[in-house]
Amino acid sequence: MSSEPVDSSKSSLMEINPEKAEKNKAKNDAKRAAKLEKLAKKQDQFKTITANAAKPKTLNISSKTEFVNDTPPGEKKDMSKPMASSYDPMAVESAWYSWWEKSGFFKPEFLGPVSDSREAFTIVMPPPNVTGSLHLGHACMLSIEDAIVRWNRMNGKAVLYLPGCDHAGIATQAVVEKTLKKEKNLSRHDLGREAFIQEVWRWKEQYGGRIYDQLRRMGASADWERACFTLDPKLNVAVKEGFIKMFEEGLIFRSNRLVNWCGKLKTSLSDLEVDMKEIEGGAMFPAHGHDPSKRYKFGTMTFIAYKVEGTEEEIVIGTTRPETVFADTALCVNPKDERYIKYHGKNVIHPVMGNAIPIICDEAADLELGTGALKVSPAHDMIDFGLGQKHNLKFITIFDDNNVLNDNCGEFAGMARYDARNAVVEFIKKNGTFREERNHPMVIPVCSRSGDFVEPRLIPQWWLDCKDMAKKSVEAVRDGSLDISPKEHEKIWYYWLENIRDWCLSRQLWWGHRIPAYIVHVEGEPRNKTLEDEVWIAAQDEHDALKKAALRLPNVDPSRITVHQDEDVLDTWFSSALWPFSTLGWPEETADFKNFYPNQLMETGSDILFFWVARMVMMGIHLTGQLPFSKVFLHALVRDAHGRKMSKSLGNVIDPIDVIEGITLDELQGRLEKGNLDPKEVKVAKAGQKADFPHGIPQCGTDALRFALCSYVAEGRDINMNINRVEGYRRFCNKLWNATRFALMKLGEDYMPEPKICLLGKESMVDKWILSRLNAAIAETNKAFEANNLMNATQAIYSFWLYELCDVYIEAIKPLLTPDNPDADSRRCASNVLYICLEQGLCLLHPFMPYVTEELYQRLVRRPQDTTQSISLAAYPLVHDEFSHPQAEAAFDKLYEVVKTVRRLASEQNVPKNATVRLSTGSKDSFGLLQAQEVALNSLVRSIGALELVDSVIEDSQPIGTLGLVDSQPIESQVFLKFNSK
């Protein structure tokens, strides 16, 4: 039997209907039937074995490696040392990043300026909030973005990945205030504005640097010299410029409207900062600003009678908020409600204050809901506010900044709101206007930062009219100028922007961009003017404001004019909305603005499509005259393995560094003790951690984490993050390591690859098969990247490396790479193909696993004239037409099916390791085909036993597969198998 391979361009395999084999099969049917029962039992046993093998293996937490990096910062790692026998993520990931950064590989100008022949690709990183450390949501964002960024860079584009951090006004202020209270028992008011802001800046310096270190650790190939913070001076100039422009256009204005108010933080809130909490009827809760020992009842409908003026008749209403009765300025009934027609145009008597208030008719009153009548409190309810404006009702505010009742509430003034609730109910019970009380499940708004119950309040604020900007943003998606992916989010886009409301810009905070608006005072004139009489100027600074004020008041002596800047700060989302262009130097026409604006892609979480993405689009269109980016790619939310939203109080928030380095359960729980959770929350969180991570989190490395996160990214699906999956990809890294180490050993130190990727002309069937599969992986990966379908990209690369290159090709060619192989051509071809697969396979994988691919790439000997310094600068693989060989693929796939069947049957039948594997066919032509692939067959079944090929059907053998084309001629042949134990 010759071991010399046959030119597989003249022979391939395909399935046919084997008549000869059927005759032989009939002879053996009787014997085979007797074995079926025994075989069935063994198959059941085999299923159990494979099921157990599929269960995730657990890495030993206690054995996580500690690695000391002896490479000087910024220097290239010494690759002359022997390659380690196994993969160690801590060793592999050391040193590379500082070398990449110092070398300037991530600067868009590194390979030359932006030009017509070298297009730009820009993506600005969604800036993480400077409120602590990153979580897996950030890690997911970064893994996706950096994979896309690296792919574009390897495709020759001038890539700018611009990093940064967000000041996160309310979130940061809330955290710092909580820390001050816990550590020093101080409030921000105890410190004063300037001292408190200095305290927040110290927090920013501590945690902002930590966040940047985490981003680097995750492998973010960002240009750090261009990093921005949303409170940087140049961004502050942009924020002021945007505000001033829209103020002077009349789009920004001051108005007294309802806002979400947090009494604990004493600021208005955006809708994103309000959580809607579902409660059962009669639920009891503590409340901020109240006696901490008390619990207050929520989810109760109180029915109150309002006497019709001048009669003994009454209209009964139901309310969940009896404490707002002081703000009532009308009752509302539906004009079609026959029960109340006789009361149209009449008044009712206020049940507490005793004054008359009108009955108004409006379809806002639902005939089927409750009694069909509503109490109207225009200054303290979003729906009632609209009714108040429509029917010209009086607006009575009843709460101060602390949500304590004010002087409009008579004898109840000075009460905290829920104490007042109880007092009002007792009062109406005594005066006879109380009718009944029922439990009523409901949803109540809660401040996401403080946990306080949100109160609608009427307060003068700055507002932005977004209607025209929103209309243009809708048109951009409809006409295809702006692409949103996944497409399902377009309907959300249209809903929000077609129903846009004015945007409340002001926040009653100290940390943030102070609003560049100045109120104008004239000496000798009263200062307590109505909102309508106030004069406001928008300006870059006080000097500019005084000049504008003098122009605004030409008949006033400028020496009598003074200005005072508004104490409030802008909503964080305002500065964030300018992020794609303020970071590039706008409003100046900088080189960066010219070269990198508009951006090509905005990648972010689907949960902030309206709050951030829509606002960036609106601001970009209005302030720069262009869309800020042409594509939006939205990833889903990262949840825990159980599908729950990640929350500190559940103990399921994971720091990506803990997945990279590993952490014990004790260390995880020790952090909870140092955090800001209250003792009850700590207890719940610890229980959650113990349930999810009973042995802690194993050391997985950055590459495994990035690959795992990207492998989850599919359209429209939330990501239920399971650490076991990351462990699996850590083992995949080990497989890469071992395969490359073996290949380098077999190629030898003196191996020199061909000057360029090419075929040598004498490739075997398995050579052609693997190159064709490589081509398929390249095509599928590039297609997936173009569609931002990273799940498909990771699957294509993983399958190629693991199931085709490692499990099949390397195993098949092992005999050809031995020094005693007499066939120099087969060795040279196999070596060339193996090198191509390693080189191209590492480049394919690099965007997802930057560290291990760089380490292994640096181990590969370079092609002559190849001066590529880093794999991050290498060309991304493209399809080679000459590698596509569907016939070789089909042929080898059939042959490999034979191999897999041999392995399966050997397992099912408990064949001993020293058995002989005898394969035969019913055709001399097909026997020649088996013989031509004997080297590959022998290597692939070697773990079972020695292979013996027989040119006639063996007695008592069983058919296990079919063969097809030989010399492009169809044959009818079936492969038979028999194990001979020694």
Automatic annotation (TrEMBL):
It catalyses: tRNA(Val) + L-valine + ATP = L-valyl-tRNA(Val) + AMP + diphosphate. InterPro entries: aa-tRNA-synth_I_CS, aa-tRNA-synth_Ia, Anticodon_Ia_Val, M/V/L/I-tRNA-synth_anticd-bd, Rossmann-like_a/b/a_fold, tRNAsynth_Ia_anticodon-bd, Val/Leu/Ile-tRNA-synth_edit, Valyl-tRNA_ligase. Keywords: Aminoacyl-tRNA synthetase, ATP-binding, Cytoplasm, Ligase, Nucleotide-binding, Protein biosynthesis. Belongs to the class-I aminoacyl-tRNA synthetase family. Residues 767-918 form the Methionyl/Valyl/Leucyl/Isoleucyl-tRNA synthetase anticodon-binding domain. This is Probable valine--tRNA ligase, cytoplasmic. One of its GO terms (biological process) is valyl-tRNA aminoacylation. HAMAP family: Val_tRNA_synth_type1. Pfam families: Anticodon_1, tRNA-synt_1. NCBIfam families: PRK05729.1, valS. GO terms for molecular function: aminoacyl-tRNA deacylase activity; ATP binding; valine-tRNA ligase activity. It is an enzyme of class 6 (ligase). It comes from Paramicrosporidium saccamoebae. Its main location: cytoplasm. Residues 1-32, 64-83 are annotated as: Disordered. It comes from the Eukaryota. Residues 96-721 form the Aminoacyl-tRNA synthetase class Ia domain. It is found in: Cytoplasm. Residues 17-32 have a biased composition (Basic and acidic residues). Residues 1-14 have a biased composition (Polar residues). GO terms for cellular component: cytosol. Its EC number is 6.1.1.9.
